[in-house]
Amino acid sequence: xxxxxxxxxxxxxxxxxxxxxxxxxxxxxxxxxxxxxxxxxxxxxxxxxxxxxxxxxxxxxxxxxxxxxxxxxxxxxxxxxxxxxxxxxxxxxxxxxxxxxxxxxxxxxxxxxxxxxxxxxxxxxxxxxxxxxxxxxxxxxxxxxxxxxxxxxxxxxxxxxxxxxxxxxxxxxxxxxxxxxxxxxxxxxxxxxxxxxxxxxxxxxxxxxxxxxxxxxxxxxxxxxxxxxxxxxxxxxxxxxxxxxxxxxxxxxxxxxxxxxxxxxxxxxxxxxxxxxxxxxxxxxxxxxxxxxxxxxxxxxxxxxxxxxxxxxxxxxxxxxxxxxxxxxxxxxxxxxxxxxxxxxxxxxx
Length: 350
Hints:
The chain is an alpha/beta fold. It has two domains: 4-201, Thiolase/Chalcone synthase (Peroxisomal Thiolase, Chain A, domain 1), CATH 3.40.47.10; 210-349, Peroxisomal Thiolase, Chain A, domain 1. Helix content is 39%, strand content 24%. The chain has eleven helices and 13 strands. It has helices at 19-29, 35-46, 59-62, 68-94, 117-124, 143-156, 182-190, 243-260, 279-290, 297-306, 313-322; strands at 4-11, 15-18, 52-55, 103-107, 132-136, 162-169, 194-201, 210-218, 226-231, 234-239, 271-274, 331-338, 342-349. The strands form four sheets. Strands 1-7-6-4-5 form a five-stranded mixed sheet, sandwiched between helices. The chain has a four-stranded mixed sheet with strand order 8-13-12-11, with helices on both faces. Strands 2-3 form a two-stranded antiparallel ribbon. Helix 1 runs antiparallel to helix 2, helix 4 (68-94) crosses helix 5 (117-124) and helix 8 (243-260) crosses helix 9.
């Protein structure tokens, strides 16, 4: 039974700033710090390969001294709005109604809400009363692909059903005002907020790239590399500087055996739908694939236009491919990395 991705739609928050317009706020935040340190921080923002980003709150609110409770309340309120708008866009693209969805997976790691996001959407859109819910909260940047994996397995076991994966993230809500560590600074320089919805189907007559195969790859003894620490001030980013090098060292094991089990090699892949973790990770991946004649231009462009939106970002890359009229038989790999440390892979065929 074929499972296909039939629709992808993004939704951006209302607030947006170009990086150059954020720098004055960063300078103000750095008041009292040593001059050399200030220059280094501003360079990090300027060289992050992110021209613009969107946020659930304006820059003044991001740099305002507020409590975890206040920031999380904004996250809850705005996440519901973004998710609903994104889902409605995806449904419209697929010419479906909210009641046509049988399985709903909501993905987020940048705030806390119980009941989870899916419960609000079921009520506001009057979705099926027996819809199956799955909130995914702790897989970070990898969770957009993880959600598609879970949806695919549900649909593989159930013919003539549809699932939606909704990823909504607000890394700006996790910015730590009193933390001048490089991790907090780098994450502020590369991350932005956003939401995307993906609809999958096991109906024979619905069109879209088929999920041919999927797999997870777990890095042993790497729990320290990525994640969040829960502090009184909110979610404090954990991002080890060795992440790009670790990814590079494992890349052959991540990509080649996965392709080989499908009787393919990298030359057979037409499209790389990769999560843009940040400038260094993008450069690492580009170096690895450039020699093979492959590009990740769409990944770089999503990073430039929106920043890293955690789990939602790879879905923005996927939407760019979905909106093109790609030839039948074209193949693509979706790939993202997240806390654990792990890589999530999907093989697509148009």
